[in-house]
Specification:
elongated; mainly alpha; 0% strand
């Protein structure tokens, strides 16, 4: 049972963080070279990734994370609470990015920059979460 929930958690984290890395290092540079489609393409890709990446995967990451924390034995309670706190920040930043700044980015330079920085912050925090998960699993 432990292996199944850990597997699901890792796959979901891979989708979430991998998706952000793919958007940052592949999609965004390509679209910047094509300004005639950039705004519309970012909106379309953002909608699709938001549904699967933000709403579905973050919800399932929360569930599998709680189950994994319950199944994990040892003195990791503080680390798990710290990870959960950062996760909740990621959820808030994701929602601000996807539901507010990202939607207004097509018509507003301010919102475009804000969406970019919210995405960068989200990626950094998400990488920290992955690192924390690895440390917890290794017993640190």
């Amino acid at each position: 049972m432990k292996e199944i929930f850990l597997f699901l958690h890792v796959v979901l984290a891979t989708f979430w963080v991998g998706g952000m890395l793919f958007l940052s290092f592949v999609v965004a540079p390509y679209l910047r070279r094509h300004p005639e489609i950039m705004g519309e393409a970012f909106q379309e890709v953002g909608k699709r990734f938001s549904l699967y990446g933000t709403f579905i995967s973050l919800f399932l990451l929360f569930i599998t994370g709680l189950v994994n924390a319950y199944l994990l034995h040892g003195g990791f309670r503080r680390s798990i609470y710290e990870k959960l706190f950062i996760f909740l920040i990621v959820v808030g930043v994701s929602l601000a990015h996807d539901l507010w700044a990202g939607k207004k980015a097509i018509d507003s330079e301010y919102h475009r920059r804000l969406a970019k920085w919210l995405g960068i912050i989200n990626l950094i925090l998400s990488l920290i979460l992955v690192y924390m998960g690895v440390r917890i699993r290794l017993g640190y």
